[in-house]
Specification:
The protein is built from 26 helices and 36 strands. By secondary structure, it is of the alpha/beta class. A seven-stranded parallel sheet has the order 14-15-13-16-17-12-18, sandwiched between helices. The protein has a six-stranded parallel sheet with strand order 19-31-30-22-29-28, with helices on both faces. It has a five-stranded antiparallel sheet with strand order 2-1-4-3-5. The longest helix is centred in the C-terminal third of the chain and has 19 residues. The structure holds adenosine-5'-diphosphate and zinc ion (2 copies). The site of one zinc ion has 8 residues, from loops. This is Replication restart protein PriA.
């Protein structure tokens, strides 16, 4: 009898691939285990076992697998089901889902680079011969491909060997560049056992009388020990005693001190404080909790609509407590890792060690650790707080999902595939686990509110801020008028300057919001009008003063700022528009003695960069924080009394059907950062158009008015949630070929689908990284089957791919494009 195994390879293949296995292997392999397999001419991949069967493939002669890598599945049945849904719904392959779902350490392949782990002390005697060979080779070479390891040990099957070496900490996998592995092994020190005895100790101090530095170290160690029972890191002893490492080392060498390690989890924890775990909800929160539970009883997802600072988090905490009491795991999704640092402290306050964090800025090792903890359902992984990818963790017993700030568009993955919406994928995940799910926001998306109104979702609301705090007082500042009357200094109206001055006098903090980073979007020649363009993309370069560079925000291209116009040579260059960097600089001139911080993509690249800015603002080391939409997210600063929006107009005028909804959300959210304690917060919005409907709705906190009006427009012009959108982007380096292919595609779609099709059209940025782009938008009415429409699109794609001249044209699907 022949046995076969279908596997999912982590590459975009339409179908599963089949390998030959022995009967023993067939008995052993379970779905969700990893296997190393050969693919193509010479590649080795880690693949996921999907199905064991006895039907030989017809189209090809199956190869044999190399190795089984796991004893137990690393992926659960529910995950496979969920990922299958993601692939199907978002029109991508299962392989693409797996590639983004599994930590890369799980999916080593022949091209993966491995490095020596310089930070670990390897005991060579504990290595097998093969392991030693690899270890040795890496002492002479900086990196090896896994295929090269094969040559070194002269074996075809090395995946298991590599996995073991990674596991033993002998080697590391090459990580994304910005992130170097940091050792987490802290060195501790204690007094040698013999000196526990007082007499011995007295003698020792006597002996050391002639070595005052050494005796000082010993005495300091005593003081530290008296202060706390916690282990004493060498670094602390060094600081406390004023003695150098050399002195401490001398004592260690003399066996007076003893050095030791405590192997630490990479993911660190704070202490739980027992007494403060109890929350009493106020009446509005209680009512919301009741309504949420009502929705849960009807097995519906529930939308929690609570104004900013209404205490949604405390309601979630109650739900999580209940979930844990039932012995189930909880998942808390956030749109942005920027938010985790504040929330993690709040959750650890209640749940201590039971909270794990998971997101893409964590190192490979940290991610693997969390993955395994979730899979094994350990104490540490009862609650996972994470960005969208935490949706793919191997929950075995999920009871509750919280999607916080559900309106955030960053829940949608844009690139690469799977282009999934984490909120929507979370609803499906919850259903698969029969878990409860709550979506929370102060400014719910039109989609979710619509689902609540048609009773597909349950609904709960909190309309008052917690603790009788008033909603902020929001005022509009007419800049057109201010300019006419010459009442502007740079980009600051007199009113805003006065408000800032007052807040500073009171010792309060200020947030200023400008939805654009950099210094000025464009540098224009006032003589000939030339604006420097990116050579790879169809956009103007943005001026970054700090580095004196022009940069492309799409591909990263940059050049030094020229002294004269590149076109006409005239030195009359001028800035148009403004970004966060320029605001920061103007503040420096207006308020010379005030400390100003900035939070945008440029200042938050490193691993802990967000955390540093946020905590330094929290600690009031800065008076003013200037930022892009990053500062609008649900941060909770206690001392901010004033929020200024530098310019609301570019947001409102953005050419997109969601621009008004987004502006409302963004402005309401950033306004919500003001006055979160007793004193009423103040918000000033500078605009050229103070009569704009959306701005009026923001100032009066009129969500319902906004919803009604936006919903009416979506009905009129047929936009979501009344239709489904699928965007197809075609890409090619050849402009003419792209246009022809796009026309062909749109024509075929029109012939077959019988739904409204827009385009092909150039997107606002029609060339990125040397590729020309063209979009086709498909609008699918609610009553039409989405699944069937997708099948028809796939069939058209097949015919498209059969046309040889379009071979180089790439198609990208974006389902529920936002
Ligand atoms: P939201 O997430 O709705 O914007 P938060 O959850 O941040 O609001 O709550 C605002 C503030 O009120 C927080 O500082 C929070 O600790 C406090 N708070 C909310 N509910 C309670 C409660 N029941 N007991 C004590 N403090 C609360
Ligand atoms: Zn570019
Ligand atoms: Zn010029």
């Amino acid at each position: 009898m022949d046995y076969f195994l279908d596997v999912v390879l982590p590459i975009p293949l339409e179908k599963l691939f089949t390998y030959k296995i022995s009967q023993a292997e067939a008995d052993f392999i379970q779905e969700g285990m990893r296997v190393a397999v050969p693919f193509g001419k010479s590649k080795i991949y880690t693949a996921l076992a999907y199905r064991v069967h006895q039907n030989a493939p017809e189209a090809y002669q199956p190869k044999e697998i190399y190795q089984i890598l796991d004893e137990q599945p690393v992926v659960t049945q529910i995950q496979l089901k969920h990922w299958g849904w993601v692939a199907k719904y978002y029109m991508c392959t299962l392989g693409e889902v797996i590639r983004s779902a599994l930590p890369s350490a799980f999916m080593l392949e022949s091209e993966t680079l491995i490095l020596p782990n310089k930070n670990s002390d390897v005991d060579e005697r504990e290595l097998t011969d093969d392991e030693f060979l690899v270890f040795e080779a890496l002492q002479h070479q900086t990196a090896l491909k896994i295929s090269e390891v094969s040559d070194i040990v002269d074996k075809k099957n090395v995946m298991k060997l590599i996995n073991t070496l990674v596991h033993k900490g002998v080697i590391l996998q090459k990580e994304e560049l910005y992130e170097q592995y940091k050792p987490k092994l802290v060195r501790y020190v204690k007094l040698s056992e013999q000196y526990e005895d007082e007499k011995q100790l007295a003698e020792l101090l006597n002996e050391l009388a002639r070595a005052p530095k050494q005796s000082q170290v010993v005495l300091s160690l005593f003081q530290l020990k008296a202060k706390s029972i916690k282990p004493i890191p060498i670094s602390e002893l060094e600081k406390e005693s004023g003695g150098s490492r050399a002195v401490i080392k001398a004592l260690i060498d003399k066996n007076i001190l003893e050095e030791y390690h405590i192997r630490k989890d990479r993911v660190q924890f704070e202490e739980r404080s027992e007494e403060s775990k109890h929350i009493t909800l106020n009446e509005y929160q209680e009512k919301a909790l009741e309504d949420i539970n009502k929705g849960f009883d009807e097995e519906k997802p529930v939308l929690l609509h609570g104004v900013t600072s209404s205490g949604k988090t405390e309601v979630y905490v109650k739900l999580i407590q209940k979930c844990l009491e039932n012995g189930q795991q909880a998942l808390y999704l956030l749109p942005e890792i920027a938010l985790t640092s504040q929330l993690i402290n709040r959750l650890r306050h209640y749940f201590g060690h039971q909270v794990s964090v998971y997101h893409s800025k964590y190192s490979i090792h940290e991610r693997v650790e969390v993955w395994n903890n979730v899979l094994k359902n350990t104490e540490k992984a009862q609650i996972v707080l994470g960005a969208r990818s935490s949706l793919f963790l191997p929950f075995t017993n999920l009871g509750l999902v919280v999607v916080d700030e559900e309106h955030e568009s960053s829940f949608k993955q844009f690139d690469p595939a799977p282009r999934y919406h984490a909120r929507d994928a979370a609803v499906v995940l919850a259903a698969l686990h029969k878990a409860k799910i709550v979506l929370g926001s102060a400014t719910p998306s039109i989609e979710s509110m619509y689902n609540a109104r048609i009773k597909k979702y349950g609904y709960a609301s909190i309309l008052k801020r917690f603790g009788d705090v008033l909603m902020p007082d929001i005022n509009l500042v007419d800049i057109k008028e201010a300019i006419r009357k010459r009442r502007m200094k740079g980009h600051f109206s007199e009113i805003l300057i006065k408000a800032i001055t007052e807040a500073l006098d009171e010792g309060e903090q200020i947030i200023l919001f400008q939805n654009r980073r950099g210094f000025a979007p464009v540098v224009e020649c006032t003589t000939c009008g030339h604006v420097a363009q990116c050579p790879n993309c169809d956009v103007s370069l943005t001026y970054h003063q700090h580095r004196n560079q022009l940069r492309c925000h799409y591909c990263g291209y940059h050049m030094a700022l020229q002294q004269a116009c590149l076109a006409c040579g005239s030195p009359t260059l001028d800035n148009k528009g403004f970004g966060t960097e320029q605001i920061q600089q103007e503040l420096g001139r207006l308020f010379p003695n005030v400390s100003v911080g900035r939070m945008d993509l440029d200042t938050t690249r490193g691993k802990y960069a967000y955390e540093k800015i946020i905590s330094s603002f929290e600690n009031q080391e800065m008076d003013i924080l200037v930022g892009t939409q990053m500062v609008t997210k649900g941060l909770d600063f206690r001392n901010v009394s004033l929020v200024g929006i530098m310019s609301a107009d570019s947001m409102l005028n953005f050419p997109d059907f969601r621009a008004h909804e987004r502006s409302f959300q963004m402005l309401t959210q950033v306004a919500g950062r003001a006055g979160r304690t007793k004193k009423r917060g103040k918000v000033l919005i500078q605009t050229y158009n103070p009569y704009h409907q959306i701005l009026q709705q923001v100032t009066t906190n009129n969500y319902d008015g906004m919803f009604k009006e936006q919903f009416y427009e979506r009905e009129q012009f047929k936009y979501p949630p009344l239709v489904r959108l699928i965007k197809i982007t075609l890409k090619d380096k050849d402009f003419n070929k792209l246009n022809e292919a796009a026309e062909w595609m749109a024509g075929s779609l029109r012939n077959v689908l019988g739904v409204q099709i827009l385009g092909p059209e150039y997107p606002p940025v029609a060339r990125i990284r040397r590729d020309y782009l063209k979009n086709i938008m498909i609008k699918i009415p609610q009553k039409q089957s989405l699944a069937q429409t997708k099948n028809s699109i796939k069939r058209i794609e097949k015919s498209f791919n059969a046309i040889s001249k379009y071979k180089s044209v790439r198609l990208v699907y974006n389902v529920d494009h936002i």
